[in-house]
Each structure stands twice: as C-alpha cells, then as structure tokens.
Amino acid sequence: MGGGSWRKERTGDSSSGKPRAVIPLDDGIDAAKLADSTAVPTPPAWPANWLAPLYIALILVGFRVLWSDSARVGGGRLPADRAMFMAVNAVTLTGFSEAVHVADLKLPGQLAIFCLTIAGSLISMFVAGLAVSRVARRPYSWRLIMGAAVIAEVVAVFLGMWFLWGQDRTPWQAAFQAAAAFGNSGCSIGALPSANAWQTHLILLPWSMLGGIGLPVLIDLFYGIATRRPLSAYSLTAIRLAAVAYLIGVAFLMVLQLADLPFDQWTVDAIRARLIDSSVLCIESRTLGMPIVAVDGIRHTMQWGLLLLMAAGGMPGGTSGGLKITTIAELVGGIRGALSGRAIGRSTAIAATWLAMYAGIVFVTVILTLRTDPRMPGDQLLFDAVSAVSNVGLSHHEMAASAGSMFSLAAAMLLGRLTSTFVLWWLVDTTPSAELPIG
Q1: Whose CA is closest to 124, among 314, 351, 395?
Q2: 4 domain residue, yes or no
Q3: Helix H or strand E encompassing 22
Q4: Which of 48, 183, 199, 32 lies closest to 120 in space, CA to CA?
Q5: End-to-end Cα spacing for the chain
Q6: Comparing C-alpha atoms, which of 188, 22, 24 is closest to residue 93?
Q7: Residue 433 — very low, low, confident or very high, per pLDDT cuts 50/70/90?
Q8: What 3-state class would DSSP assign to 23?
C-alpha cells in the first residue's frame, strides 16, 4: 500500500476496468480489507444532513446552562450575547479568550464548556473523518470511525490529564487542558505551561497535531502498529504535508522575528528563544489557539505572518479548522498543471470555490464587526475575523466587544466550521476521482 504513489493507488482499478469493491456499512475490518486499496466504503448521508441541526441544538443547550444563575461565580446571569458567544466558542473548537474567563464560571458552567468541547471534537472527527476516509479509499465503516473517535478522545483526555496534573494544576484543570489541546480549542482553565516547559512540547503541542492530522490517519497509524503493515498512501501524504507545513511555518515566523532583531543582538540564547516561540506559534495558529505565547505584544509583521498561518489551518478529518493544507496543496497542484497545459480538474475547482467562500465569510465578518465597533483598528478586525472563520481563537485582546460584534464573530465561527465540512462532503458526493480531501 505505502510503496505506490497516491495517484496510482486511487486509479489502479480503473485502468483494469474492474469495478471497485464496496464494503457494507455493518462490516467490521480485517487484514484483507485493510490491505485492499480498491475497497471503497459507502458513507451514509445522515451525518452531513444532521450536522447543522446538531450544532444548533448543542449551542442552545450550552446557552441555556451558561445563561442560568448557577453558571457564573458571584451570582447573576451572564448577558445573553455573552452566554451565546461562549457556547459557540466552545462547540466550534475556537476558544477565543473572553473578558469572562471559563475559570470565572461555577462548576456547571465549566462542565458545560468542557462537554461542548468534547462534543465538538467528536462531531468534527466523525463527520469529517467519515468523508476523508471515503476520499482516501480506506475501508472504514461509520461504526468504526465513531468508535475510533470516542476512543481517541478518551485516551487523549485521560493520558493528557496524567501528564499535565501537578504544578498548580488540579486533575480537573489538567483534563480540561488535554481536551482543549486535542480539540484544537483555546478554551481551558488553569495555568498553561510556559513555552519552554516540557508539558508544552510533549503534551499540548503533540495533542494538537494528533487531533489536527485527521481521524483516518490516526486509525491507519493504529492498524499500522498493530498489524505491522505500511501506512496507506494518503496517510503518508497527510503526514508529509503536515510536516512540510510545520517546517515552512516555523522558518517563516523565524525569519520575521529575526528581521525585527538588531544584528548585534543575534546571540545563541536570543535565537533559541525565538526558535521556540516560532515553533509554538506555528502550532498555536494552525489551529490550537491556546495563548501559550501571547500575540498581543508581537510586532505587526509577525501578526500578518500568523494571519496567513491561521488561514492555512490543519488537515481535514480532525479537529483543526482553516482552509486546510490539502486545499492549498490541491490549488498549487492545479495551478502547476494548468501552466503545464493540463485541464483544471473538478477537485481544483472545488478548492478554488472553497477559497472564495472562505474569503467572502471573512470579508462579511469584517464589515459587520466594523459597523458595530467602528473604533477598532482595521488590522485587528481582520485578524479576529480570520481567527474566527478558521476556528483558531487567537486575538490581540479579550473578547469584550458589543453585542453586535459578538453575534457577528459567533456566526463566523459557526459558518467556518460548517462550511468547511459541507465542502468536504460536496467533494465526496460529486468527485469520486478526488485525490485529496478539500475543506
């Protein structure tokens, strides 16, 4: 499986004229099916059909809990716009820092945010992971994908809690941070580890990368280890793309930081500190969102660099947001093919459409926010809009805007999460020859 190219694996049967095998949804998985790259699962349509109603239902339940008198420390209710924003912020795995912190809530409020984060992670991994497994030609039934999502979430929370517990963090705070990291959400409680701490580089950042690589890749990794089989061509491609994106992002941020540093201050310690910050910020912006390295004090050149990384996002099929690295890879490949004289394929057209939709949502969000908060600087408006649509949660400031701005950003967060998933299922439904998942 892993020895051939991704294109060869996807088109191997079509050249022989043989129809692709279809695995029934209620089948389990065995070694033969795992080795058969022509076995194409048929995903049910109901996950995508019920996606928007499910998100709305979760938001309304979260809003009702957060708007109750028992949710806020000190008594009294949160304002309705604040409670709605917090619910959307959690379930879409965005995690903006707010004027009313999650730690300021009573236990029912904290439990609501925690449960919304878990639910948002499971929904994203299941619905998007099911579509990605179809594009990647992996023989995984919807039951297997759902079970794998639950197992991955449980392992991530409890294993992360075990290692994060201590150093001024209670087990509850440690579990909350582990769930947030795996869900690529900035919603957390307790003191975050510093950029130099081992918990950051061995737990929080790897958890974010595992959550963002996509559930089908995690399943492939598990079966690869358990059965000693090579990874599928798509999993190898996804890992390579994620690694390349990380290295390019770190190098890009490193150049921006060194450009702002006088040459006579280029010491080993200064370069090392900026390298660590670049590594953390690269993962923070794609799309962990935890303020391990704060963005409010960095220079404008770095802010524009982070904006580009936020737009890029992670990989499809997991908990990350943004355009997705595969979308960028598809666009680059399509442009190169067009320059070489080849026709632009449907996958490239869908990727370009998704890029236009993303830009349109960002533009409308900036306009609506500007109407309600005209005093806010334009670069901050754009930064917040991209952060919201990409479900990142990084910002120069705590979210304490007017009700109109709160609802605009909440709508942007929800649209960013829903639209990317709908584009992914659009690709599944209309482009059986797609080589990379889009959205």
Answers
A1: 314
A2: no
A3: strand 21-23
A4: 183
A5: 25
A6: 188
A7: confident
A8: strand
Note whether residue 164 is domain-resident. Answer: yes
Residue appearing with tokens 């754009």: 382
Residue-wise pLDDT tens digits, 15-48? 333 333 333 333 445 444 444 444 555 666 667 7
Q: What sign has the CA pseudo-torsion 419, 421, 424, 429?
A: negative
**SS3 per residue for 35-63:** HCCCEEECCCCHHHHCHHHHHHHHHHHHH
Tokens of 59: 């938001």
Q: Specify the pLDDT at position 35.
A: 45
- State the Cα–Cα distance between residues 203 and 199, nearest whole angstrom: 5
Residue 57 CB neighbours (<10 A): 12
Averaged pLDDT for residues 113-140: 94
| Cα distance between residue 211 and residue 190, in whole Å | 21
Of 330 and 103, the structure prediction assigns the larger pLDDT to 330
Q: In angstroms, rounded to a whole number, what is the distance separating the alpha carbons of residues 42 and 155?
A: 28
Domain interval for residue 230: 20-430
**Around Cβ 340, how many Cβ atoms within 10 Å?**
7
Per residue in 385-394, pLDDT (tens digit) is 999 999 999 8
Residue 74's contacts (CB-CB under 8 Å, 6 or more residues apart) are none
Residue 30 vs residue 11, higher pLDDT: 30
Contact call for residues 131 and 201 (beta carbons, < 8 A):
no
Helical pair 233-259 and 6-16, crossing angle rounded to 10 deg: 150
SS (H, E, C) 74-131: CCCCCCHHHHHHHHHHHHCCCCCCECCCHHHECHHHHHHHHHHHHHHHHHHHHHHHHH
The CA distance from 348 to 327, in Å, is: 8
Give the residue-averaged pLDDT of 121-126.
Answer: 96
User: Does the predicted TM-score (pTM) go above 0.85?
Assistant: yes
Q: How many domains does the chain have?
A: 1
Structure tokens at 233: 């061509």
Q: Is residue 386 part of a domain?
A: yes
Q: Would residue 91 count as lying in a domain?
A: yes
CB 317 within 8 A of CB 131: yes
CA torsion sign for 286, 358, 389, 295 is positive
Counting every residue written for the chain, the total comes to: 439
Token digits for 410?
């909440």
Q: Which pLDDT score is estimated for 419?
A: 96
Q: Which residue has the higher pLDDT, 119 or 188?
A: 119
Longest pairwise C-alpha distance within the chain: 70
**Coil, helix or strand at residue 66:** helix
Lowest mean pLDDT among 44-58, 117-131, 305-319: 44-58
Instruction: Look up tokens 């692709």; give the residue.
Output: 20
